[in-house]
Amino acid sequence: MSAGVNVTSLPILVTSVTLDGLAQLSNQRLFFFFFFLCAYLFMLCSDSLVVYVICSQRSLHRPMFVFVAAVLMNSVAGSTVFYPKLLVDLLRGGRSVQVTLRGCMCESWLLYSSGTSSFLLLAAMSFDWYVSICRPLLYTVVMSPATVLALLLLCWLLPVGLVGTAVLLASRLPLCRSQLTRIYCDIYSLVSLSCGGRETLLSEVYNLSVIVATVLLPAIFVLFSYSAVLSICLRRSRSFSSKALSTCLPHLLVFCNYGVSSGVEVLQRRLQAGSQPTASVLTSILQVMIPTVFNPVVYGLKVTEIRAQLRRLLGCQRAD
Fold it and tell me: How many other CB atoms are there within 10 angstroms of residue 86's CB atom?
């Protein structure tokens, strides 16, 4: 069962949740407000710019770039759930925020759906690269527009359903507490407020299965795919290997970014960071912030085709 669950307490009627993570930011409230505002505006502008370039240039209408645009659109969706609410909370000046239980669950659903969908999209991207490098003769057949559309729908709808079920299970738990040392709601924290028992155990087991299905298995598939690509590249010519690896590198960087951010958050929870509120708040912020700011920079600067189109759009080089 989750750490901090009080199995001896009696259930109470909880209609709202208190998030007191803002207390850790209260001494530098204005600094954090402008810092998060700049991060949000940068993310919106950079993601929108890269997505616009991909949509407007016919040369980029290929499966790999479709998945890149989908990852960045996911980033915008998740960030729009997180940043505006945080900015408003910082402006209000309180050390804690009260959120209705229904609103808290909705926020958890949106954030986790967006995050787990990104892992699945990265797995779809690695599948595209695996087919193009290891099975090039089958590429046009396997990665048809219908296949790409089916993968996109799977990557978006599967997390929505799985995470939605997890939120539904959490909503049925009897709660014994209503205070979280967080700045946003998440499913793990909601379950930790419960009184324990079979329902809590069922919810935790299901949450673990969702993590395995939407994070662990896609991560294993990504590692397998790029290992196969690397093996093929090492047996080809140096020019082919260099081009293929330079194109794979941005996707691996984004994958490592998501993996490390999520891994640190999970480890921090398992190490009983409830007694370290500053660490809990910091890791929860970094888990959302680092990928959203880092991803458009990687795709915009490291993917040659996107970088060339961005330079042309911004007037950094003459059109051919």
Answer: 24
Helix (H) or strand (E) holding 17: strand 16-19
Q: How far apart are CA 287 and CA 115, in angstroms?
A: 10
> Which helix or strand (DSSP H or E) is residue 310 part of?
helix 304-313
Beta carbons of 81 and 110 less than 8 angstroms apart? yes
Neighbouring residues of 105: CB distance < 8 A, sequence distance ≥ 6: 167, 170, 171, 185, 190
In degrees, rounded to 5, the angle at the alpha carbon of residue 57 between the alpha carbons of residues 51 and 58 is 125
DSSP characters over 106-175: HHHHHHHHHHHHHHHHHHHHHHHHHHHHH-GGGHHHHT-HHHHHHHHHHHHHHHHHHHHHHHHHHHTSPB
- Comparing CA positions, the residue from 297, 300, 296 lying closest to residue 313 is 300
In this structure, of 6-15, 27-36, 83-92, 133-142, the range with the lowest mean pLDDT score is 6-15
Contacts of residue 189, defined as CB under 8 A and 6 or more positions apart, other chains included, come to: 180, 182
The whole-angstrom separation of Cα 276 and Cα 4 is 13
Give the number of other CB atoms < 10 A from CB of residue 24: 19
Residues 10-68 have pLDDT tens digits of: 566 677 888 888 887 877 888 889 999 999 999 999 999 999 999 988 888 999 899 99
**What residues have CB less than 8 Å from 162, skipping those under 6 apart?**
116, 210, 213, 214
**pLDDT per position as a tens digit, 269-298:** 666 555 567 777 777 788 788 888 888 888
**Of the candidates 129, 109, 127, the residue with the CA atom closest to the CA atom of residue 210:** 109
